[in-house]
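The step that takes the researchers longest sounds almost clerical: writing a folded protein down as plain text. Below is the pair of lines this work produces for a single protein:

——
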Amino acid sequence: MRDAQKPDHLSLNTLVSWLREGRFVIPDFQREFEWKPWDIRELMRSIFLDYYIGSLLLWKGKPENFEALSCEGVYGHKGSEKPEYIVLDGQQRLTAIYYAFLAPDVPLPNRSNRFFYFVDVKKFMAEEYDEAFGYEWLTRRWAKVLANKEAQYSTHMFPFSVIGATGWELPNWVQGYEGFWKRKAAEAEAAEDAEAAAEAHNHAKNASEFGVHLQGITGQYQISYNELNKDLEVDKVCDIFTQINSRGVRLDVFDLVNALLKPKGLQLKQMWRDAAPRLSDVDTEKMNVYILQVMSILRQSYCSPKYLYFLLPGQEKPVRDPDGTRRKEILVSDIVVFEARWKEAVDALADAIKVLMHPQEYGAVSSSFLPYVSILPVFAALRAHAKTLLPARQLDARRKLRHWYWASVFNNRYSGSVESTSARDFLDIKAWFDDDAAEPSLIPEFAQRFRNLDLRKEVKRGTSVYNGIFNLLVLQGARDWMTGDVPQHGDLDDHHIVPDSWGKKHIKGGLAGSILNRTPLTADTNRNVIKARLPNEYLPELIAQSGEATVRGILESHFISPTAFDILLRDPFGPDDFDAFIAERQRTLQDAIENLLIKERLDLSPQLRELDTATEQIELNLREAVETTLGGDHKEVPQHVLQKVDERIARAVKKNASLDAEAYQNLAGKLEYFDLRELQELITSKALWPRFEPRFSTKEALAAEFDQLAELRNGIRHSRAVSEIVRKRGEAAILWFSEVLRKPINAGVPEERSPPGS
């Protein structure tokens, strides 16, 4: 890359001359010339005032590149062309300079008339720069002015097209302008009109100074440019090109790939027009690029689509195998293959958008509530890959995909280097799908860090965490406060619980706009219930109409706990009460993240969520009973059970360096890694059973309850489908364990039993 870019500059005279000769050509992927008349005027002003107008990026051309990129001349250029440079950045500026200085006989885009540009010499020399630069339609009147230099001199109008004319036009115009006012001065003196003579002499003097200024601007004003070597590979040019921004419109790789494919008979722009309606639910200007990125990810596990233009043998991209061996690979062998992969990518994105916006899947019910648009390509590619797995593996793959997605959302993972992150995640999650690798580090990091989320700071809709919380509220089935129904999701928006008008008066730092004070409500509820009133005004009305239990239940579907509900009813309600409310709602939302996402209960029905929580509580109570009974001594645990647990802990610590191995050296720490069956094995072991027997009565009864509890737990956590019989047996086991674990048993001391026959 040493000679890839060569910075240089050229004078305005040289630039205009090269434009006239047709040395600059525009590749097909560039958008059309679209500057408005006033944009061109402002550029002329900048040049004449010796302001920097930015650098150009040019690619030294050769015939095959001109053809490959379907290059055309600058807008308005007529006559023979001598193409030398492909304009990668600066098309709008170059075309504006061409139009103003060379005055082609064409109207501006979206205009019916030609325009011409000029500077008022009198105002310019008086330093009235805001008024000095102008443009006009080329009407008959102005056509006469342009054809009559005397008319130009008398009105002090210097047409910029004079600079673009060849030969002696420029010095002749300046000399003619100066001579005109010298004659006017002589005529005024002869008429003894001293005032007119003085003014004319001043114009003649200004003419001379204006000529010096013109000479300096045209000969010494420098336009900088970077020239890319003509032998530079197209993919390297693509790397440079995709980083360019021009007037706020990002030039992207889609346009380049389109230009490269067009000569080979593939109309990529038309393919995008056909696909766009299917993907229109997401509002982004990059969707056409996302299709190419999905193609790239699925084809080469990499998110950059810059190699997808290789259509013919011999144009292969050199790649390396994992062992470093160089090889060549045709990424897309022909048009038919490209079209098939394009369709596959469009289908994958349409499927991804549908599932992300589903109110019972991911909850991003509109484009504005999608946490990341940039996550779409890799999410779509991973879902597409999951469909290729064996049916028995697909359910687990979808579970893992959800876990990765939510971890990415709440870790702000896709706010940085999206392409490299997408490629890394695709490979890691794909391997996780296939069980060839342990879970990616992102997953345990999410489990550890989610409690550190400060939701108070999430005040801007569109950010990942803000939208992620809103999505959880939708997934929770947040009910309408007036009807109690789950509303149509197209009618949902996030509205304030404590009114914003009150918050602006009483709460500092914009905290009233936090997601903690917002929830999905319909416009009708916001307008007819809240009405900019405090909760202690509108909640009592709802309670009077529907009953307190009903209203509390509805608000709990919005993660407003009973404690938070009581705070909202306080009268008077002040800033301290507001702080207490959002602190309680933060706790509730963090518990919801743990319950729904970390513990993966999101896709369970509410009834199964409750049973899963109850099962988990039984496990926690069993661990507590074991620790109490053994007096915290892990040495009493059967050796074969302890060995399995220690191996599990070692793997966890190795996988997650943030875990403290010392915390798992005592019995309480080790018990965190016991599963349900290992707890059963410990309790019923020959050496320890006498100490647990007073609580659990018989091994047979205990084994039966463990079987029923384990069947329920496994049904919930693996198949996600639980029969009525399994559910009822599991519920009975939960009740049984809850009862026996409440019995007060002396720790470590077996209950004395009467001898038989006494």
Q: What stands out?
A: Residues 570 and 640 are 57 Å apart (CA to CA). DSSP finds 34 helices and 15 strands in the chain. The two ends are 97 Å apart (CA to CA).
